[in-house]
Amino acid sequence: MSLLLNLRRPPYRTYSITQLCREFGATPRALRFYEEQGLLSPTRRDTARVYSYKDRARLQLIMRGRRVGFSIAEIRDILDAYDEEGSAAQDAEALKIHKRRVAQLVRQREEVDEAIRLLQVASDRLSRQYPDAADLDP
After folding, report:
1. Average pLDDT in the chain
2. What's the pLDDT at 8?
3. What order do you get walking across the sheet with 14-15 strand by strand?
4. Share of the chain above pLDDT 90, in %
5. Which of 63, 66, 89, 90 could be a cystine partner for 85, CB 3.0 to 4.6 Å?
6. Is the pLDDT of residue 1 over 50?
7. Which residues contact 16 (CB under 8 A, 6 or more apart)?
8. d(C-alpha 100, C-alpha 98), whole Å
């Protein structure tokens, strides 16, 4: 029976730096940086980096985190929570960081909205003062 189960298990998959860069739209420099920061830990085959399925999953989380503006430290905290205490701890840490990031983005949106309002008021005033310049494209 265990032989049958082993036949169904997918083979252990590894990835080259080129494969992961292509899949995630990252640069080799970025992957080496994440390795320097301790977020990824590929093995070596001669001088080549060999990434495991775990490294691939971690890179996926890193890329998602970076896309929404998480810092390297925040991403490290999320990944470390999994390594130290499992997925429930990782989810709790991620939730805390997500909520903090949402609050930051809401504040930024309010600041951008206020900047737009101030610029619109100034533009309207300048357009009335200099009607010939108001016809120029931005």
Report:
1. 90
2. 56
3. 14-15, 48-52, 43-45
4. 78
5. 89
6. no
7. 48, 49, 50, 51
8. 5
The DSSP result for 4-15, as a single string, is HHHHHSPPP-EE
**Burial, 40: exposed, middle or buried (Cβ in 10 Å; 0-12, 13-18, 19+)?**
buried
Handedness of CA 83, 46, 63, 18 (dihedral sign): negative
- Cα 16 from Cα 54, distance rounded (Å): 13
**How is residue 8 written in tokens?**
């169904």
Rounded to whole angstroms, the Cα distance separating 136 from 138 reads 6
C-alpha distances out from residue 40 to 22, 36, 120, 121, 138, Å:
17, 8, 46, 49, 45
- Quote the CA–CA distance of 124 and 134 in Å, as a whole number: 9
